[in-house]
Amino acid sequence: MQFHAPTLVTQPRRVKMPVADPAAPALGVSAAIPALAQFFKADRDTIDFGIDFSDWLVANGSPQVTNCVYAAAAGSPAVPTIAAQDYNAQGETVVVLSGGTAGDAYWIDCTLTMDAVQLREGNPNKIISRVLVRRLHIVVYKD
Questions:
Q1: Where are the domains of the chain?
Q2: What's the pLDDT tens digit per position in 47-96?
């Protein structure tokens, strides 16, 4: 099977994390982690992809991001070459992938760690440090 470049690009290589996740029943009882988005990459490109968690963070107490790691998900059909990755405290994350073979499909998990936040001023209760894992699907085509 020959893979070719998509003729129409309808999405940027960034996706915003929705403020509310889909309800569990909508995912199915045994559903794997659903992808936030699917992107395409040419086999010879070194190119960036990312997830913007900023709106989600603001809606969930405005914690600061303390760590972010992109890695191939367990069970990914192929393992990508991660050339670089970065994040900022406000929740913008990026991973740079290079190479690949036409027809490869990658499941890339972004593991985001946030600090604890106070629920509201004057309230001694805190939301403890949290960890989110969200997935991107990347498909490689022949350029």
A1: 14-19+33-141
A2: 999 999 999 999 888 999 999 999 999 999 999 999 999 999 999 999 99
The tens digit of pLDDT for each residue in 6-27 reads 444 444 688 998 887 655 444 4
Class of domain 14-19+33-141: mainly beta
Q: 66 burial class (0-12, 13-18, 19+ CB within 10 angstroms)?
A: middle
State residue 21's pLDDT score: 65
Contacts of 49 (CB under 8 A, 6+ apart): 13, 14, 39, 41, 94, 95, 96, 97, 108, 136, 138
Q: Which two tokens stand for residue 83?
A: 């050339």
